Amino acid sequence: MTDKLSLVSLRDVLDDRAVKRSLIGLYKEIWKEPPWDEDFWTDELVNEDIEFALSQKDFSGKAALQTDGGLYVVGFTWGYQLPKGQFPFLIPFFDEEETFYIDELGVAKPFRGRGTGSKISQLLEEDVDKFGYPSMTLRTDVGGVAYPFYMNRDYVDIGVRDPKYPQRAYMVKRLK
Ligand SMILES: CC(C)(COP(=O)(O)OP(=O)(O)OC[C@H]1O[C@@H](n2cnc3c(N)ncnc32)[C@H](O)[C@@H]1OP(=O)(O)O)[C@@H](O)C(=O)NCCC(=O)NCCS
């Protein structure tokens, strides 16, 4: 496989039906993997999740597209201003401050370990910095690959565990 990847803003490519289909397919494939084990995602549910994200304040999304022999998504990340109402247990941590919530990050298995996740994360962080947020926040499983991935990107485990999933930690990176 030759790597011809193009890094793009998700909003710019989601009108392309083939691209959106490939994003939905990859999303379903990735969240089926351990430690997520989410085999309940249907095309419709993923589409709703994407539309929800797009409707949120300061949405930003990035994708890595394979451009060799077709156009399809091999990596994605997106986020938006943390909707604090959905995370009441984080309110004491942030108080009056707003933070940007990274909702999703995934890279197709054959493309992992080659810097793709880092590149799209970097592009997202640059947008968030431009928006002016002082920090970025995310939730991930302490036993998963993303935990060391984000540690290496200067995210700190703030010691808050998700009330529904005790294995899932909240991590914050300060930008300012
Ligand atoms: C997390 C994920 C997006 C990383 O994407 P990637 O393109 O492989 O990441 P990169 O190649 O940019 O790796 C950057 C750094 O992350 C760390 N890292 C990546 N994979 C790792 C692994 N399996 N174990 C430990 N550290 C790892 C390394 O420090 C790596 O730097 P190095 O290559 O200089 O050692 C990818 O593994 C993935 O999609 N996992 C499944 C989905 C998931 O868990 N998403 C996060 C949900 S919160």
Structure description:
- This protein has 176 residues and is an alpha+beta fold.
- Helices cover 34% and strands 28% of the residues.
- The chain has a single domain, classed as Aminopeptidase (3-Layer(aba) Sandwich).
- It has a 7-stranded mixed beta sheet, with helices on both faces.
- The protein starts with a strand and ends with a strand.
- The model has no long low-confidence stretch (mean pLDDT 96).
- Bound molecules: coenzyme A.
- Coenzyme A binds next to strand 4, helix 5 and helix 6.
Radius of gyration: 16 Å
Total beta-strand segments: 7
Strand content: 25-35%
| CATH class placement | Alpha Beta
SSE blueprint:
Blueprint: E1 5-9, H1 10-13, H2 17-32, H3 43-55, E2 60-66, E3 72-81, H4 91-94, E4 100-107, H5 116-131, E5 135-141, H6 146-152, E6 156-161, E7 168-174
Parallel strand pairs: 4-5
Antiparallel strand pairs: 1-2, 2-3, 3-4, 5-7, 6-7
The structure holds coenzyme A.
Coenzyme A binds at residues 30, 105-107, 112-118, 140, 144-146, 148-149, 152.
